[in-house]
Amino acid sequence: MEEIELQQNDSILEELSYTRELHVSILAKTKQHTKTNFISTKKYNFFSLFPKIIVEHFYRLTFVYFIFISILCFIPSLERGRETMTSVCAPLVFLIILSLLRDFFEQLKQYKDDVFENSKKAKILTENGTRLVEWQSIKEGNIIEISENEMMPCDCVILDKTNVSFETSQINGETFLKAKKGISFLQGIKEDEMKRVECSIFVNNPTIPFEDFSGKAVLNEQTQQLSIENFVCRGCVMRSSGTILVLATYIGKETKQKLNSNRHDLKWSYIIKMTNFYSIALFFINLLMALVNTFLYKPYANNQPWYIEFQRHNGAVKFFSEVIESNNIIPISLFVTMEIVRVVQTWYINHDGDMATLNDTSIAMNSCLNEELGRVNYILTDKTGTMTQNHMTLKKFSISGKIYGNPDDESDGLSSDMDEHKDATKTEALSSSEGNEITPNIVEFDAKKVIDDYNNNMKRRIVITEFFKTLTICQSVDIRREGEDLNYFSSRSDEVALVAVSKECGFELFEKTAESVSISIFDEQKTYRILKQFPFTPERRRMSVIIYDGNEITMYSKGSEEMMSERVKEMAISRKLIEQNDQFNKEGYRTLLICSKKIDKEYYINWLENGENEDDIERDLILIGVTAVEDKMQEGVRESVLKLKEAGIKVWMVTGDHREISKDIGYSSGILERGLVTSNIVKRTKEELNEQLKKDYEMWKRKKVNINLVMDGESLESAVEEENCKLFTKILGLSRGCVFCRCTPKQKEKLASFVNKSKGSCSLAIGDSLNDVSMINKAKIGIGISTGQDMSAAHTADYSIPAFRFLVKLLLVHGRYFYRQNSVVYFYSLYKNFIVVATSFLYNLFCKSSQIDTIERSCYTSYNILFTSIPIFIFGIADRDIPPYVLYTNPKLYKNREYYSPLNALFWLLDGLVASIGIFFISYVASYTNSVLPNGKVIDLNGFSFTIFVSILLVTNLKIVTIIKRYTWFHFGSLLFTFLVIILYLFIQQAILYTDWMWYNIFVEMLQTPYFYLLVILITFLLTAKDLLWKHFKKSILPDAKHIAEEVGVKEKNKTYNSIKSIKERDMFFNTTWHLPKHQHNDLDYSDSSSSLDEEKPIIN
């Protein structure tokens, strides 16, 4: 029987062209296609951590270089390899272990968040009733009971109800609620019966697009085609009252949430990528030096002196021995130091009290991108939940020209701790009503003036009544009674705000059906029959309701100015209201024109008979008033956007919401600039889009003006394709601000990919929900907002912050510090090793390339580990050129791309070459002309090499002093500790190794020679003075904005940016010894770094 049943099911699947069958009845067993509903956001798991780390390291050419050197060390014929094996292989192993530990701890929080998310409870139907299970335990075919304000634990088909509202902002960014419906022939079936109903749901394999779903429900001979209207994704929140039953359709890795967030693109910072280029150049320098030494060695090998014990090598052995000898030209210790520095920098972000709220902190989850935070020039930001709270508030309105409302709230954008606490408390009050539900006690409006005018001015009473009747009758809200309280609920939160304020003003909506609406006007109840409704749609952007009160027919309408102004009867008061509407728009509010008109009964009957054309009847409206609704912005968003734009960063909004809403938020947030012409590009064919782009570009270029750009997702998708991308790039070059609306996750990803193709670009994507994950993964830096129900973006991002405003300090302060610090750490590490390699090369030139050690082998090994590592490490974590408050108040200081340029790399290498030449030849000449020791002996080869070694140590360590911008106890302590370690190490070597040590007794003899002290002091003084003079010359003669800001920071060192809880610059900074001319202290001149967009280059070259 079972085989027959299976064959029948297979035939049904084949007939219906579906691949899966789910049974509603719990008595039937549904085939499982995935094991668990557990969703992981981790980049690695326990088993893949090590192999993936190794594979990722092979993208770094330096890692390949070290593997190559390690292989050479194991070749028996290469003596240098055996001597160098420990100094190469041990740091390499340590580097891999350090990378493993770093990634493990960075992924640890994501693992904890995954466990928390998947351990949430859901109620499923069983044979014995309902049972709470963890989300991860849900199976395909389970019937789940979902309550109001509960999040969907997996992708489901709705079974038993219709017109169920879901919040999908976490999925598609839309602020409107989505109406979903169940299966028609399952309506009204009780819970106990549902468990046994013999209904089958046929679906296809899961697909990635959120709006793609099809299926069929079959019950006996009844069938119903299923579409996206019957399907709800994991992460959506039910906003309807009561409970519904849904069927688990796709779980775990097959949910659309997981399918859209699977990719973790490998991301490297600009420094890491450029390191590959520099490593190739240094490798060729190493090969060149090896070739020179091999060439010079050949005649010497044929005629070596009889008194030197020397093992002859062939050319290949000599060449590779020289390659091993100079392998430190690319120091492996550099990458160990960088890894540790990045870990400490990550700690700074994680523990910065300025970037934390009462309940959440900022977290860095990809320390490899720390320095990239200092190079951002494009920010792609989501709207809902990232920039806005998705909470509408009616701030003011005008009735017949008189404005009512509260004064505009003023905010400096970045609050104190007490303000933060108040805001958090207020937010809790709003969120307690869940989404678009708003109770009267939290309406932010003072109704006293409206009520006074209504009671004391009979003329105004009439127009006030008409105004609020429009708000309470022309609406699409649902009413929910909870005892004596009324709560309003709607797919449009601005309508909830209008109705709630109307109640405060004495006009209460208390009952509504499909045929009638009842309102209370100052406790006098009135009921109106609804004749016709024209709902609000994104295309219409207006709503109208025709009612009959028993005597006359009236139409009440409201809508945007663009759609309503041409339908309004020309009157003097109308012109005044239109001007007030424009003023409200400039202040950043979303406005609606409120209108009404009386309709003659005969005209209405004729209109019905002639086809009920809405455009014919929505004419000659009388304009009553204007409403100004604030889409509640997240705290500090506008101020933050302006700061970021002043820093030279382009901020673009990329959202799934509707055009008009997106444009309003664009103006409110400062992304779009008022006073500029806005170019609206709507979806069309590729050819038409190309023509519009060409026409717009030629027109705006001819007029020499900048513009705002507003574009929908479909147009964007065509614009970034090859045939249109050049024109699109030119348009973007003219744009001061861009808003991309109605974008799907795929279109967001394409925009991020398009920006990444720009030469020298560094894109940052920030969002808070699942629909932003693909954009966050594709951008060079991904930021997730960590406050909210959906943590998908925060879990998959490179960094998570609690609010958008914290982006200012993350980039302008931390990012700039990290970029400068890490660049200097890298170049300094090359510099100090290039001095050793170049000096050894010169030394061997005078020794016939006989590979005599310039520096004693153990000291050579300890050079990077003990003798030079600590000062540069302290620099990498503690040095700050400009205090945070100066960086915050002068954002243009962020625009600095010189730290890691090829020109800067060449400068450091030439500096190292000059230092090596100076150390070698000054030591050589001085030792040759006057080399008698106190005991009568002359300075021999070992004494000469010891002099070079000490000079290198002093020059390289004191080089730190010349690049430090703010001297702290940490810097001085690290230098003192390093010198003590060097002295202690040499004494231990002298005491323990005896005659096996190359510098045995030489060390003691040189310390007893005054001439030795004079020589190393002379070398150190000359080379250090060179750097100090150059530093003084740049600051005193050729100062730029950065130098002036450094001096201003010193003079006003007691100021802070917010409160620097974790950095404490005031306790660490000393006064500097240099001073600029007095006139340069008055203000900072940024003329050299102006951000005029008229002169900006296209984003793609």
From TrEMBL:
UniProt xrefs under SUPFAM superfamilies: Calcium ATPase, transduction domain A, Calcium ATPase, transmembrane domain M, HAD-like, Metal cation-transporting ATPase, ATP-binding domain N
Positions with a binding annotation for Mg(2+): 382, 384, 768, 772
Principal subcellular localisation of the protein: membrane
Annotated Pfam families: Cation_ATPase (PF13246), E1-E2_ATPase (PF00122), PhoLip_ATPase_C (PF16212), PhoLip_ATPase_N (PF16209)
EC class: translocase
Residues holding ATP: 382-384, 495, 536, 558, 590, 655-657, 742, 748, 771-772
Places the protein is found: Endomembrane system; Membrane
A GO biological process held by the record: phospholipid translocation
Membrane topology listed for this record: Multi-pass membrane protein
InterPro entries hit by this protein: ATPase_P-typ_cyto_dom_N (IPR023299), ATPase_P-typ_P_site (IPR018303), ATPase_P-typ_TM_dom_sf (IPR023298), ATPase_P-typ_transduc_dom_A_sf (IPR008250), ATPase_P-type_domA (IPR059000), HAD-like_sf (IPR036412), HAD_sf (IPR023214), P-type_ATPase_IV (IPR006539)
Catalytic reaction annotation: ATP + H2O + phospholipidSide 1 = ADP + phosphate + phospholipidSide 2
EC numbers on record: 7.6.2.1
GO molecular function list: ATP binding; ATP hydrolysis activity; ATPase-coupled intramembrane lipid transporter activity; magnesium ion binding
PROSITE patterns found in the cross-reference section: ATPASE_E1_E2
Bilayer-spanning residue ranges: 58-78, 84-101, 277-297, 860-878, 899-926, 938-956, 968-988, 1008-1025
Region Disordered, annotated ranges: 408-433
P-type ATPase A domain sequence ranges: 119-255
Cofactor(s) demanded: Mg(2+)
Domain P-type ATPase N-terminal as annotated: residue spans: 31-83
Active site, renumbered: 382
Family to which the UniProt record says this protein belongs: Belongs to the cation transport ATPase (P-type) (TC 3.A.3) family. Type IV subfamily.
NCBIfam families hit by this protein: ATPase-Plipid, ATPase_P-type
Protein's name in the database: Phospholipid-transporting ATPase
Species in which this protein is naturally found: Entamoeba invadens IP1
Lineage, highest ranks first: Eukaryota, Amoebozoa, Evosea, Archamoebae, Mastigamoebida
